Amino acid sequence: MAERLGNGLKAIPGADLLHAVEANILFRRLPQPAIDQLLAEGFTFYHHRWERGVCRFVTSFSTTEHDVDALLEAVRRLTI
What we know:
Blueprint: H1 2-10, E1 16-17, E2 25-29, H2 32-40, E3 46-47, E4 54-58, H3 65-79
Helix pairs in contact: 1-3, 2-3
C-alpha cells in the first residue's frame, strides 16, 4: 500500500516527494491549507514535526486500497 500511495502522490502536483518509498513510511510536502483540510476531514498523520508542510504518512498491513485511494482523492482535490 505504501507503493500505491507513493505512486499516487507522485502524480499529484503540489504533493512533493521528499524521499523514495522504501518501506511503509512516506514523507511529502503539502500546502498548509491542504494539511488543515485533510485533518478536518478525519485523516490522521504527523505534520510539522520536521519542518512546515512536511507530512508523514504510514501504511500498515491493515491499510486497504480504499484507504489509500480516499487519501489520494482528497489530496488531489485539495492541491490541484
